[in-house]
Amino acid sequence: MPVPAHIRFIINPTSGTRSRVNVAERIEQLLDKDKYKHEIVFTEYAGHAPKLAKEAADAGYDVVVAVGGDGTVNEVARGLLHSETALGILPKGSGNGLARHLKIPMSLDAAIKTLNTGHVATIDTGSINNHAFFTAAGIGFDAYISSVFAGNKKRGLQTYVELVMKEVMSYKHMPVKATINKKTFETDCYVMAFANAAQYGNNAYIAPLADIEDGLLDVCLVRKLDLVKALNLSYCMLTKQLASPDSAEYFKTTHVKVSTQSPIMYHADGEFLGEESEFEVQMNPLSLKVVVPAGVN
Ligand SMILES: Nc1ncnc2c1ncn2[C@@H]1O[C@H](COP(=O)(O)OP(=O)(O)OP(=O)(O)O)[C@@H](O)[C@H]1O
């Protein structure tokens, strides 16, 4: 009989708005006990998950599963970077960008079964000012939204969409100097997104051509926004198309530098990180193992 793999589930009890399903109970019921010897731990505070994940990676666990939204996935994955331990995801947030990109089912039961039947793939990760991200990071409007969202008591997709609609036309672009693919240029910047996965979450595709195993970042630059561009961009994001060139420009690269006169907000995987005037964004090719469904590379 093969030896069961060690798997640790890290549950963020605060994530998600909807279900009161007892995740631990479903794991007990559905996880393949021949394949896995498992344990379940709960985060006790924001920032606890990287420690719980790293501790398991150092102890040689085969898989550590993030049970939560993109914030929890980011924290767990940070603790596993460059290790042999694979990340699993049971999506419980409102966006679930990385899980969707990897075709991990949104239903809890199906996602647990994916752990039973899936396989391990290796993906790229990115970093912005040395803070790792797995789905996308960005400066400008999307970071501003993450800052407002962070201070909002109400969570979930509806709150997010209401917030974007309220703020989208009043947010002002800023002048920045950017270096991409060794070319330095000055530009207005409403938002500059650095995508590892194709979507932010909720099937909103900021970088439809992104490939998570190609060693490249997909940069999407929106210089200025007016109503027509906002409509074009929203339509294209929701239909997985590139926006028209006067709405957004796209670049594939491994490294981006940005500097600004006045500090600008930034985020990683939707978590607001503050304001800076200098940014260095990098790819770390094939630096994270993940459990993906059978049939997904
Ligand atoms: N036990 C805890 N108590 C308070 N905060 C926690 C705890 N565990 C994790 N967190 C924090 O919760 C934050 C939000 O987590 P996460 O993104 O997974 O859920 P969510 O906000 O419901 O999902 P989404 O971002 O998709 O809406 C993370 O930044 C994380 O640091």
From TrEMBL:
The segment(s) forming the DAGKc domain are: 2-131
Instruction: Kindly list the GO CC terms recorded for this protein.
Output: plasma membrane
Query: What domain of life?
Result: Bacteria
For this entry, list what GO says about its biological process.
phospholipid biosynthetic process
Question: Which Pfam families does the annotation name?
Answer: DAGK_cat, YegS_C
Needed cofactors: Mg(2+)
Q: Which GO terms describe its molecular function?
A: ATP binding; kinase activity; metal ion binding
Q: What UniProt keywords are attached to this protein's entry?
A: ATP-binding, Kinase, Lipid biosynthesis, Lipid metabolism, Magnesium, Metal-binding, Nucleotide-binding, Phospholipid biosynthesis, Phospholipid metabolism, Transferase
Q: Give the protein's recorded name.
A: Diacylglycerol kinase family lipid kinase
